[in-house]
């Protein structure tokens, strides 16, 4: 963790008007996050499926995803999205969490996850789960924050596979 934290951090809910900001952040974080884990073709395919304006609008408007934007020193530096899972009223899923590479190691990811946990608790959340590629170094980050490996899951996405751990954290 870096010794110098940004002095001004704000986290706020995103709206449909923030979709261009989310796309801008995704463009800066997606490839660096996955380039050593999955093929370039899979990175590009998944990005095209998940991060079009239409797809993000559907996630927000129809699929019930809440997006949070994190600002450091007034500039967008990260985002997360989460939703309640149909399996149970108290089970929520963290769909996305990304911090700009230039801002990683400053505690911002932890701040963003804590904001997601607080938001889910306020609406009855008791468990938060996420999917993470089984070769993603972020696994240790999630474990430090109290997430535990719950199961393995292989999910087809177009001609590719997401080979994930499902990790869970019980919220206090």
UniProtKB/TrEMBL annotation:
This is GNAT family N-acetyltransferase. GO terms for molecular function: acyltransferase activity, transferring groups other than amino-acyl groups. Residues 9-172 form the N-acetyltransferase domain. The keyword Phosphoprotein does not apply. Keywords: Acyltransferase, Transferase. It comes from the Bacteria. Gene3D superfamilies: 3.40.630.30. CDD domains: NAT_SF (cd04301).
């Amino acid at each position: 963790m870096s010794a110098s934290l940004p002095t001004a951090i704000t986290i706020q809910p995103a709206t449909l008007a923030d979709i261009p900001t989310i796309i801008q952040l995704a463009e800066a974080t997606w490839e660096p996050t996955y380039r050593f884990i999955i093929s370039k073709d899979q990175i590009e395919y998944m990005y095209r499926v998940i991060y079009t304006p239409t797809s993000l609008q559907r996630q927000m408007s129809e699929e019930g995803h809440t997006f949070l934007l994190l600002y450091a020193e007034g500039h967008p530096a990260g985002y997360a999205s989460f939703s309640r899972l149909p399996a149970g009223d108290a089970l929520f899923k963290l769909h996305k969490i990304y911090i700009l590479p230039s801002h990683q190691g400053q505690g911002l990811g932890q701040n963003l996850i804590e904001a997601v946990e607080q938001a889910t608790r306020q609406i009855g959340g008791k468990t938060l789960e996420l999917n993470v590629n089984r070769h993603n170094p972020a696994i240790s980050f999630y474990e430090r924050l109290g997430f535990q490996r719950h199961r393995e899951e292989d999910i087809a996405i177009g001609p590719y596979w997401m080979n994930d751990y499902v990790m869970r954290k019980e919220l206090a």
